[in-house]
């Protein structure tokens, strides 16, 4: 059985090679022997990770299925950036060689992936897809918030369980390595988990005469993962370059004028490549052929995206909604109208 479907191997700090939908998922149900054989053949896992994989094959499947969400979030956040989470063809690591150096991009990937594991597990617990967990059992009885008293009810997402498993599995390789890079990765993994917790929301349902809300039943729920992605992108923009102390047990800002990194900050200690040109060693795809915005001065603008090489302009046909009319009641109907637009793409390296 192929362990690397379509060349997709999520090589993070844990070297997680998830089996995606292209692989026959029946092995998850083959019992202890089947899961042991498969977990023992996933490359890159340390002993602790293999143990957890064998003990919790269904959890592994949930995390693998959720991988698409945080990969898509990475691509969304960096869609107008020279590095856009894409990788060189035939690179079996999902995020490519960017993870081989401790750069800003690697910091974001570690954080968003760690956050994604927590998010996927917490949702799976509360939706009843895992036998090992369910709704948060601590959310019972009376409580109160700024709006007054309420009773816990419904099904609260079991965040703490998801955080504990993520910490045990995702961090296991870094704890085994115990070097400067591992220390940085552990910090960014933790920042990702904290980002999910930051956006937990309290949702309530009112009870009482005519919806008076004299009584409330509330539960804690995960917010949309986009909020976590937005938060981590802001942290990427303000990531702190650090230097590890001589004992290898901690780090501080690399330069005196930099702020000391907090627990929510992303940290890195190696400079990023510029991602302007294709480079196999750095994992850069280059920006040749990438679409850019001619009028923007930001990272998605042609001057920045194309690294000063210039851009080509072509006229392409698109469709857009037009002549929209409101029809009683209650629909808006539009026509699809042809539209000619100018598409600007970066010139390749010469």
UniProtKB/TrEMBL annotation:
Purpose of the protein: Ligand for members of the frizzled family of seven transmembrane receptors.
GO biological process entries: animal organ development; canonical Wnt signaling pathway; cell fate commitment; neuron differentiation
Subcellular localization(s) per the UniProt record: Secreted, Extracellular space, Extracellular matrix
One Gene Ontology CC term in the entry: extracellular space
Keyword annotations: Developmental protein, Disulfide bond, Extracellular matrix, Glycoprotein, Lipoprotein, Secreted, Signal, Wnt signaling pathway
Main location: secreted
Signal peptide coordinates: 1-25
Protein family according to the UniProt entry: Belongs to the Wnt family.
A Pfam family annotated for this UniProt entry: wnt
InterPro entries: Wnt, Wnt2, Wnt_C, Wnt_CS
Annotated organism of origin: Muraenolepis orangiensis (Patagonian moray cod)
Name the record gives this protein: Protein Wnt
PROSITE patterns registered for this protein in UniProt: WNT1
Superkingdom of origin: Eukaryota
GO molecular function list: cytokine activity; frizzled binding
């Amino acid at each position: 059985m192929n362990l690397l479907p379509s060349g997709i191997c999520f090589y993070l700090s844990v070297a997680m090679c998830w089996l995606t939908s292209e692989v026959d998922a029946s092995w998850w149900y083959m019992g202890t022997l089947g899961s042991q054989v498969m977990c023992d053949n996933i490359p890159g896992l340390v002993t602790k990770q293999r143990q957890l994989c064998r003990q919790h094959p269904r959890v592994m499947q949930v995390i693998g299925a959720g991988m698409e969400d945080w990969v898509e979030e990475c691509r969304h956040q960096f869609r107008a950036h020279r590095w856009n989470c894409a990788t060189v063809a035939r690179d079996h690591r999902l995020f490519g060689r960017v993870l081989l150096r401790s750069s800003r991009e690697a910091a974001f990937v570690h954080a968003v992936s760690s956050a994604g594991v927590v998010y996927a597990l917490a949702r799976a617990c509360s939706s009843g897809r895992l036998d090992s967990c369910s709704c948060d059992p601590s959310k019972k009885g009376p409580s109160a918030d700024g709006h007054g008293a309420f009773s816990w009810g419904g099904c609260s997402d079991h965040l703490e369980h998801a955080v504990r498993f993520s910490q045990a599995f995702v961090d296991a390789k870094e704890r085994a390595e115990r070097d400067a890079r591992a220390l940085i990765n552990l910090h960014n993994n933790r920042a990702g988990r904290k980002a999910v917790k930051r956006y937990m929301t309290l949702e309530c349902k009112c009870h009482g005469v005519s919806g008076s809300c004299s009584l409330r039943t509330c539960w804690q729920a995960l917010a949309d993962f986009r909020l976590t992605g937005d938060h981590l992108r802001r942290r990427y923009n303000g990531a702190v370059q650090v230097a590890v102390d001589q004992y290898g047990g901690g780090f501080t800002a690399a330069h005196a004028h930099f702020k000391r990194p907090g627990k929510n900050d992303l940290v890195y200690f190696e400079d990023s490549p510029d991602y302007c040109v294709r480079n196999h060693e750095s994992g850069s795809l280059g920006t040749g052929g990438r679409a850019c915005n001619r009028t923007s001065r930001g990272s998605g603008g042609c001057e920045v995206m194309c690294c000063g090489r210039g851009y080509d302009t072509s006229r392409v046909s698109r469709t857009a909604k037009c002549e929209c009319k409101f029809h009683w009641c209650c629909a808006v109907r539009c026509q699809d109208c042809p539209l000619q637009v100018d598409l600007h793409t970066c010139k390749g390296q010469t």
